[in-house]
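Q&A log
Question type: sequence-to-structure
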Amino acid sequence: MKAAVYRRYGPPEVVQIEEVEKPVPKDNELLVRIHATTVAAADWRFRSANPFLIRFMNGLWRPKKIQVLGMEFAGKVESVGTAVTRFAVGDLVFGSTGFKFGAHADYACLPEDGQLAIKPVNMTFEEAAAVLFGGLTALYFLRKADVQPGEEVLVYGASGSVGVFAVQLAKHFGARVTGVSSTTNLELVKSLGADEVVDYTQDDFSRAGPIYDIVFDTVGYSGFSRSLRSLKPGGRYVRVGGSARLWPMLGGMLRGMWTNMTGAAKAVSGVTHGTAEDLSFLKGLIESGRLRTVIDRHYSLDEIAEAHRHAQAGHKKGHVVIVLQQASR
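Response status: OK
Response body:
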């Protein structure tokens, strides 16, 4: 089978298409033929070893544990292990491989109890492939911040892969949402349900003073001081994105700890933990027409290097999708 493989760290060109062995599912696994996948932030960070700490996870001098990237996908079940009962051959599914990666290939094996579900009936493979990373991240951190009906929520980076879901989910939970984005993406953010929009190229959201209950920074550029100035007493600062450099990362962690200790606000961070119930929740919202994804560009697997380059540039709207099998549903 074909797979996008990287055998050294570096620029997008280190990812090459190779013929590799097709995986065989274990008793509790299913083999999925991938129809669509995405290039998310974790993909290009692992490829470039940025931050450097990734080298301690995946090989100091070259990638060893993970050589095929790709965290989210949609496809068709081709075969199942003898112990699998929830899925059958022919099922159309969507899900996430998590930090095991492996979705940038024709096939991938997934455990039956993993982050996997039947694909929403009203989504194409391409649309369904672009749900898990942003959707689960936004859902996890909004719940961790304990968003409540009627609260004022500011989403910084509202047009990115996490931001498009943060806006929609915050609205679903009854919040009043302000989305921060660039000039060209303001209409998109409004179409997602944002009550107000702020163009960060023209205005500073923190000038309005302490009016938000939650500042949800999806890209790490809102600024700690500016965000805290914008929060009401007892407000929550959610910081998902951030610098990949070691010292800024450590500085952000220490500042978050100090913020929590002093009680100035509650700093919320960490690693997303998605469950099967969370995936079912997102699927229900999708099929009821209350949640959608946004796709910026489509690429073929042969164009994987260009897809990495575009995703890493940091100006995409929603998701960058890789199409492996041409099928609309």
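Response note: The two ends are 22 Å apart (CA to CA).
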